[in-house]
Design brief:
Layout (H helix, E strand, L loop, with lengths): L1 H14 L6 H9 L14 H5 L1 H4 L3 H13 L8 E2 L2 H8 L3 H14 L2 E5 L2 E2 L5 E2 L2 E4 L58
Antiparallel strand pairs: 1-5, 2-5, 3-4
């Protein structure tokens, strides 16, 4: 404990700053040590509590965090992210990333504001996206469409394609079943 107080005194003496509270001392000790630009991704508690977020798989959640990472506060509605760029950021295949985007769109977390297109000089321009959780660039209130999403909204079959009720297979009674004779081979049942 005494070593820490000596170290703090040495830090204060060499920096020429005065720390009057423990918070000032922490600021001096840890200034610039963690994140140089101070940016972080904040996910609200009400977002975590929404039914749409609770039912979301980990892949689409990571995708949403990538969208939030690209949000600067003034570019909502103009967040550039291509399918390939999203796949590279999450270290997944492009087709997998497309499925993640479809999940986020289907639940109302994001929506496309401008689709991909070849630019005016022929170089492709990525899609522009809008986060429904945040205010738009022109100051409109957030839509929060994901808050209205419910689990039974888009039910899918659990085991692939459902089978039809009426099947057109052969009868199981061997007495009524005959195999046709095609030419030289005899039919054996």
């Amino acid at each position: 404990m005494r070593f820490i107080s000596l170290l703090c005194g040495l830090l204060l003496a060499t920096s020429g700053a005065q720390a009057t509270t423990p918070d000032d001392l922490r600021t001096l000790l840890f200034a610039g040590k963690f994140d140089a630009d101070g940016r972080h991704v904040q996910l609200s508690a009400w977002l975590h509590a929404s039914e749409a977020w609770k039912g979301l798989r980990p892949g689409p959640r990571a995708h949403y965090i990538e969208f939030k990472r690209r949000l600067t506060g003034s570019n909502n509605g103009e967040i550039f992210l291509s399918h390939r760029g999203a796949a590279k950021a999450q270290n997944v295949n492009k087709n997998t990333a497309t499925g993640f985007l479809a999940d986020l769109i289907g639940r109302g977390f994001i929506h496309l504001t401008q689709g991909p297109h070849p630019g005016h000089i022929g170089i492709g321009v990525a899609s522009k996206w809008d986060l429904d959780e945040e205010r738009t660039k022109d100051g409109k209130a957030p839509a929060k469409a994901f808050m209205a999403w419910c689990a039974n909204q888009n039910p899918s079959p659990k085991n692939g394609t459902p089978r039809p009720n009426k099947r057109d297979n052969l009868p199981l009674n061997p007495a009524n079943h005959t195999v046709p004779n095609f030419g030289t081979q005899s039919a054996i049942c």
